[in-house]
Specification:
The chain has about 110 residues and is of the alpha+beta class. Helix content is about 35%, strand content about 20%. The chain is globular, with a radius of gyration of 14 Å.
Length: about 110
């Protein structure tokens, strides 16, 4: 039961709190949430990490947020299919991440 409550709290913080800040203040920045991580452009990773930390700290939690750099293979092609995500501007698609060094932030 405790584990489920912790997962729910983390999900609410990532979606509502972190997602709310990203949507309100960084609406043009492509962000893809995956479970308890965010995939962002490498140049945005430190900002995203700081947003996660600040939103968790407002509740008295002090998360360890690790930045991992991901480089897609050179022959990797992203399809031109829109990514359905409330945090992504509608004009962004999966190709927004193609060939970009990404920061994966995990709590």
């Amino acid at each position: 039961r405790l584990a489920c409550l912790c997962q729910r709290l983390e999900a609410e913080l990532m979606i509502d709190a972190v997602g709310g800040v990203l949507k309100a203040e960084y609406n043009n920045e492509p962000v893809q949430p995956i479970h308890d991580a965010l995939i962002v452009r490498g140049s945005f990773a430190v900002t995203a990490r700081d947003i996660i930390r600040s939103q968790f700290m407002e509740t008295g939690l002090y998360p360890h947020v690790k930045i991992e750099h991901i480089v897609p293979p050179k022959d990797h092609e992203c399809p031109e299919v829109p990514v359905s995500n409330a945090w992504l501007p509608e004009e962004c698609s999966a190709s927004a991440f193609a060939g970009t060094v990404l920061g994966q932030l995990t709590c």
